[in-house]
């Protein structure tokens, strides 16, 4: 709301599977949707990044009056994880707000029943510090 009150244009994207996951006593139930994505050779987090990139395409193509030179992406929790990855892959996104997705893979995804939707095969091989 603060951004709207200051005159910014805001697009809210409900990312892949967020409305479908539901909650369990352990947390969000994204297991089935994530396993189905893996069976297709995809990941849920990859689908979420794709969603944001396609929204950027839509803004560029259908709203030519928008100034995309300051395109900003932000999210919370899994949305923050998607923001982190999309900001690395989408050159149109110039600014990011990431504040709640900082943890090692070992202590987060690999340590507990927690958000299989954020899993990327082999990512720890490339982004885990080796002692």
Describe the structure.
This protein is mainly alpha-helical and 131 residues long. It is built from six helices and four strands; from the N terminus they run ααββααβαβα. The protein has helices spanning 2-5, 18-21, 31-39, 44-62, 78-89, 123-127, and strands spanning 23-24, 27-28, 72-74, 95-97. It has a two-stranded antiparallel ribbon. Strands 3-4 form a two-stranded parallel sheet. α4 (44-62) crosses α5. The mean pLDDT is 83.
Mean pLDDT: 83
Structural category: mainly alpha
* Count of runs of 4 or more consecutive helical residues: 6
Q: What level of helicity do the residues show?
A: 40-55%
Can you list the strand order of the major beta sheet?
Answer: 1-2
* SS elements, strand count: 4
* First and last CA, distance: 45 Å
Identify the overall geometry.
globular
List unreliable stretches of 5+ residues: none
> What would you report as the Rg, rounded to the nearest angstrom?
16 Å
Note the run of SSEs as H and E: HHEEHHEHEH
Beta-strand residue fraction:
5-15%
Largest sheet, described in full?
2 strands, antiparallel
